[in-house]
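Here is one chain, start to finish.
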Amino acid sequence: MSTLLVKNAAIIVTMDKNDRELRDAAIFCRDGFIEQIGPAAELPQEADEVLDLKDHIVLPGLVNTHHHFYQTLTRALPGAQDANLFNWLKYLYPIWARMNPEDIFLSTQTALAELALSGCTTASDHLYLFPNGSKLDDEIAGAATTGMRLHASRGSMSLGESQGGLPPDSVVDTEESILKDSERLIQRYHDPNVGSMLQIVLAPCSPFSVTTQLMRDSAVLARKYQVHLHTHLAETEDEDDFCLAKFGHKPVAYMQTVDWIGDDVWYAHSVWVNEAEMDLYAHHGCGVAHCPSSNMRLASGIAPIMTMLGKGIKIGLGVDGSASNDSSHMLNEVRQSMLLARLNSGIKGASRSAPDAPPLMTARQALSIATRGGAAVLGRKDIGSLEVGKCADFCAIDLNKLDYAGALEDPVAAVVFCAPLKVDYTVVGGQAVVWDGQFVKFDITEHARKHNLAAKRLLEN
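Its structure:
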């Protein structure tokens, strides 16, 4: 049995149901779980490992609810810099079609290392194309080298251009093979237990890239094995037009026809949703992965997050694809979510002093979305806050940095309002992933060299 004592932190932000922020407190962990948290004098003074976090703020590990790891290979490409979603996809599909299993492995390592350095401990990734023999197994193998928790979404595309879909036929697959592989992955890898490091999600890509039958069959298969469902939904106005023309319904109504409404479902984006659709989410417990940087980057629009929160909808944060962000920085996404929500409130409210002016998102609300909100979206009760019995997943930031100078009256707000930084420590299940500002699982410099060679090869083919 191994123990870890975290002591001397300037402040521990628990994100528990009482939103406690503890000073002169400590955390005692055993075998990857929090055993005690509270006043330092009341906790054990020794452990197998002692982490002295004097002058640091400690946060629950951030939870990333939507990503496309493989897109780290195609960031900021000139042909995709100034395009909206559909044109961006059309440019990138042929490039992604050149990927191989090693590319999936490398890009997974890149994305998860970036996430860890920005305070993330659990990430859900959506891999929906499998060229040249690639499998979700390649991503799972890459993740295993990083020490991070992974919700690996078995994405899919079955509706090619020849059938009226958006992706070229070269990157789509048959419904039969998709479902067979989905079941194989669940049986082999899915771990539903407390403290799980790996869970499988079924995730047909989007209404404009999969068939109606695949949506229905995926829902049946997911519920057979009690795994979650995930897809892109209501990201752009173009999607509304496509769904009305193809299916006779707007995106959310289309989800109802394929039995994709429920507390085991979460959607990426949900930018273009109305009051009735949000009420439907709230009533059935659907979750949303909010991706503010990507929505701005692709000019998709502003998701009505404050309205959703007011309705009790589960909201998590997602960095989204690293070719539409173009980073994997969770603390930055926390800041962006707050700022974009405030902008949206300003657009809606003619005067901030008006009695009915929309509320401004607070720094603590943004952190809550990134922690316990993300955990709720993924269906996890063992992560998202620092409480007895939960996983020992946390990050810590040294507050004695120039970037926070003058902001220490409220250090919790400082880590959101001030420029986003890399964290100093990230711990997953009691094991260090980032230590003293350095990713410790493999050599980052050598890895970046390999990654850049792979990215260059994709463009040369």
